[in-house]
Structures
1.
Amino acid sequence: IEEGIREVMGAIAHFPGTVDHILSEYTRVTTEGGRLSDVLSGYIDPDDGIAPPAAEVPPPVDAKAAKADDDTEDDDAEASTDDEDEVESGPDPIIAAQRFGAVSD
């Protein structure tokens, strides 16, 4: 899968205007505000031959145990509303600035 993603990214990068468009979108997000994750989701290192770890699949849940847990989770959810603060996730802005700077040069 990763090899296929790299091939597609390489083909897109060689299409006329793609790199300029992505650079202009990055500039727009950094100057006008917005989420960096709207422009990119991550990086692919062409020298990295190691596949990223696969997402963990949760173990199957027993229906009776899940019902019992649901009753206790309602009480916990009412007691703690401070834990629901939204945290910005996505690419590191400092690394993005370095990489986009290298591409624009």
2.
Amino acid sequence: MTVPLKDYTLFTPYKLSESLELKNRIVMSPLTRARCDPVTHEAGPMQVEYYSQRAGAGLIITEAVAISVQGFGWYGAPCLYTEAHRDSWKPVVEAVHAKDNVEADEQVPEEVSVSRLTKRRREEELPEEKHRDLAQIMRSYVKQRDLSAVTTLKRSPK
């Protein structure tokens, strides 16, 4: 027996909010690629290819992206706190949008609530950021969101 794909709920649109409707219910989870420029931490051709190949998903959640110097954590990880970082992500977003016809628009909380951090192993060092430090990082993120090309998705007018 053959069932047309259109009959599967997985392939039907899903309204996530008033301003966001996914074209299908497939969500690509964040997978850290660690393939950004190791010196500048900018996205490059590998990210363009990787994310555009996955543009068929209803929602793509990018790999972890450091939004401040304090947030950077591993070799080859991308950052997004300078104009150069922002500009490096534009080709990625444009490649995905070219295949998917979407636009970006972000809603970010003004403050962050910090829970107590615990160590997994005694030899690990934890950052010494306090609530105010983390709140400042989030405020910085809010200011930088205009630089950000990777944001919540909204349908483009047809």
